[in-house]
């Protein structure tokens, strides 16, 4: 990271330094325990909220700090740099995915009821779009909302809901039962209380991201009132496509932070580890491998910043966001693998930090839009 940047103001750079120190002092020492316990304590959201980190880009009126978007970019990069996928997943879903829909589509009373307490760390947010039979293909969602009296009855199953076990509200994408059984024209978004009668949450075990809770959420005729509808009826697909831009920028920037962490670990290790009478880093093949990875990282970082800059100016940048996510997350998987190789057998031990990165980065090319979907978006772009 160069200190002089066209993207980061001196204030944003100073904010990054403060945030890095805060995360290193208050979060990093606890991550191994949370990983082993398969949980992030609820008070952690409050701790981050105390630093303003849960609402950097949200309006002051709803508890946010209304800071320029590159403060968020700095925060997300530092979050990734902690090197723990579950923690960064839980926090980024809360602040840049689930609550994004309230910001985009919510009315004043919905923002007051959900966005503000989420920004202040008093409520945990989750986003439920994916279903067991529908992930990449959002237009095939099957969970339905049927109008009954003054409200709706929701029925279906949501899969892979990050923060799903702890969440106080869940932004949920559903198909309106009075429309067709497939396609994107009759999707709507609801804010749902996961403690309502008819909701069953079941945790799922994963390869990595251990401290982050992930749930399957069954919705058996869950009654919600009309005020739970976010935005207009049948406008869900539009909001999802809009919010995907931010989600993909966040995924790209988080991945860059994770890559920085992996390279930092690899450079330290190769500087210390002696093989055949010299440091590993003194073998030209190792130096050159690291130099290659560092160069690719810088290119991916600049692409992510460019996408973030377009987004911050309100430009529709679907393709750039997809390119940034594709490049950064694929690189994160590659770098984590290469760094594990440089650690040798020590890298393969369960408690090795590069093993954690190897497991956790693997998800990034799948969640929030798989690499194949990113390529589809890019390929569809007019030149
Ligand atoms: C730990 C974790 C946390 C998650 N958190 C959330 C969350 O909070 N909220 C939420 O809604 N979802 C969440 N997800 C779901 C995630 O976004 C989906 O897994 C992802 O969108 C892919 O959907 P799928 O798993 O159904 O895979 P599928 O759609 O079945 O795709 C399987 C694979 O097929 C390939 N593929 C798909 N489409 C195409 C195509 N057109 N051409 C070529 N290849 C293709 C891709 O490689 C893809 O990975 C989470 C997932 C995990 C594992």
Number of helices: 12
Biggest β-sheet, characterized?
A: 8 strands, mixed
Can you tell me the CATH superfamily of the largest domain?
Answer: Butyryl-CoA Dehydrogenase, subunit A, domain 3
The count of β-strands is 10
Count the domains: 3
Second CATH tier, the architecture of the largest domain: Up-down Bundle
Name of the top-level CATH class of the largest domain: Mainly Alpha
Task: State the CATH topology of the largest domain.
Answer: Butyryl-CoA Dehydrogenase, subunit A, domain 3
Order of helices and strands: HHHHHHEEEEEEEEHEEHHHHH
**Low-confidence residue ranges:** none
Q: Which molecules other than protein and nucleic acid are bound?
A: flavin-adenine dinucleotide
Q: For the record, give the distance between the C-alpha atoms at the N and C termini, rounded to a whole number.
A: 31 Å
Structural class: alpha+beta
> Averaging pLDDT over every residue, what do you get?
97
Approximate shape: globular
Radius of gyration: 21 Å
Summary keywords:
binds flavin-adenine dinucleotide, Butyryl-CoA Dehydrogenase, subunit A, domain 3, Butyryl-Coa Dehydrogenase, subunit A, domain 1, 383 residues, Acyl-CoA dehydrogenase family protein, two-stranded antiparallel sheet, FAD, 3 domains, Butyryl-CoA Dehydrogenase, subunit A, domain 2, eight-stranded mixed β-sheet, alpha+beta
